[in-house]
Amino acid sequence: MKVLGINALFHDPAAALVVDGVTVAAAEEERFSRRKHGHRPVPFAAWELPELAARWCLEQGDVDVSELDAVTYSFDPALARSADALGLHDPWDHLRQTYARQAPGFLSTSLPGLDPAVVRFVRHHVAHAASGALASPYADADVLVLDGRGECASHLAGRYEGGRLTVHAAQDLPHSLGLLYEDLTDHLGFLRSSDEFKVMAMASYGTPRFMDEIARRVRTDGAGGFVTEPVDWQSLAKRLGPGEEWTQDHADLAATVQVRLEEVLLELARWLRQRTGGDRLTLAGGVALNCVANTRLHAESGYDEVWVQPAAGDAGTALGSALHVAAEEGDDVRPMPGADLGREWTDDEIEGWLRTAQIEFERPDDVAVEVAQCLAADGVVAWFQGRSEYGPRALGHRSLLAHPGRSANLERLNDVKGREQFRPVAPMVLADRAPTIFSRGPLPSPYMLFVHDVDPAWRQRIPAVVHVDGTARVQTVDREDEPLVARMLEVFEQLTGLPVVINTSLNTAGRPMVDDPRDALECFGSAPVTLLAIGPFVVRRRGAGR
Predict the structure, then answer these.
(1) pLDDT class for 7, splitting at 50, 70, 90?
(2) Position 496 pLDDT exceeds 50
(3) In the chain, where the domains are located
(4) Which residue stretches, if any, does this entry annotate as coiled coil (predicted)?
(5) Which end of the chain is flanked by fewer CB atoms within 10 Å, N or C?
(6) How far does CA 500 lie from the centroid of its chain?
């Protein structure tokens, strides 16, 4: 079967193509449109069809629209109820549901030649679940889905066997761990449904001293679900306005909700494992992007293996809905081959971009060596290589790289990107070197979705990547999967004695991650970056030297 998956409702519009059970391509619309998800006024940020991403996916797979056996849409309006009936305040909900019901018509307009009859609605949390379990390396696995909301629920707990899902529990709205975290994000002055990772970072600066109040209102129900009662945030810490400085009260509130979230997730996972007897857990939904909670699940849930979808947010439902229908129709669904499922350019195409830009560039004998030397000299490198990543993490294809041994490089990179200074940056390390430096979290960890304790002996050697609590969000690199990145890391270690490089996403505040060569050149031109490594070429900042 040829199945095109679409997400276009709440946020993170995306498309994915699955052919005969194999994931061919997947990409978020923001990488094409350059409109960052969550940063546009409601409802427009949510209701953006991924036209450009969908067309590119079809081109990548050499599939004509008329050849599609199904187009899947990761929301089923037939299952939805009004926001008022669900106990939610959402003035746009009636329009959202109307939009979803009309999706076949919208899609056939944006993809000329598409028969609206091939469009299939897939329950939102089933799409999430498939993006977790069916895309994972495991043939059979348990799955937990937690996010803000789907049609009328915020959670699903189940098990996949033989490509078929058995649902063991689901949580009806308005109770939602994702919406709870969104409310806190908004109260702390950040952008709801976009900046939750900032709250996770802030939590490390606090202590959970509001636990009595939060635990009374957020609790499991003993049957695989949970309760989230409204919280009077203002009584715990005053709401932060634009430009206001956060205080210890705000950090303590973030820490309290973070710890309580972890505790509830552990109880839900243990309940599911007791129900199924499974030893492998997969995670999806926006809550699964909480790296700290994922590590506790790995360490304390009782599961032998925990795997998280790298595009765990709503973008991942484009892939999940396509995988679900492919499996339902009898295709042998294969694990996703990696997160590098987006666009790439040939060397000739990149050279054409550089010449069009009339910019000086070089083609060194080995770009990995050139980059390692620049990093060893404390330069900042914009790294643009291969296919772009699916999901929010830069994993060695669209990255900013720097020296981890200089503590000032944390502030330096946050300044380059225009980010808050309490936010950490991540270490990239060869998989076989990681166990000597990092512990507690699972290794290897190729998708940067867990936190790890940094060995005390290494904390002073790589201070820029060590968070205030002594942890780091590690990305491990396999030599076979990422030979160019691996060679750069090896040369950097030869030059510095450090097998670790800082890796953060190649973008600046409010902008989507760089995706094509034009984006890379614009970012390089506007940010204080020493070197752009784009394909086999390098572009030097004028005056930076070699």
Answers:
(1) very high
(2) yes
(3) 2-74+77-121+314-328, 153-308, 347-540
(4) none
(5) C
(6) 22
List, for residues 156-201, the tens digit of each pLDDT value.
999 999 999 999 999 999 999 999 999 999 999 998 888 999 999 9
Instruction: Label each residue of 118-145 as H, E or C.
Output: HEEECCHHHHHHHHHHCCCCCCCEEEEE
Superfamily of domain 2-74+77-121+314-328: ATPase, nucleotide binding domain (3.30.420.40)
Burial 236-250 (b: 16+ CB within 10 A, else e): bbeebeeeeebeeeb
Residue percentage of the chain with pLDDT more than 90: 88
Among 1.10.10.60, 1.10.10.10, 3.30.420.40, 3.30.1240.10, what is the CATH number of 153-308? 3.30.420.40
326: left (phi over 0), alpha (psi -120 to 50) or beta: alpha
How confident is the model over 355-383, as a mean pLDDT?
97
pTM, full prediction? 0.96
Model pLDDT, residue 394: 95
Q: What is the DSSP letter of 362?
A: B
H helices of 448-516, where?
Answer: 456-459, 483-496
Q: What is the CATH number of domain 347-540?
A: 3.90.870.20
Can 11 be counted among the known catalytic residues? yes
pLDDT surpasses 50 at 442:
yes
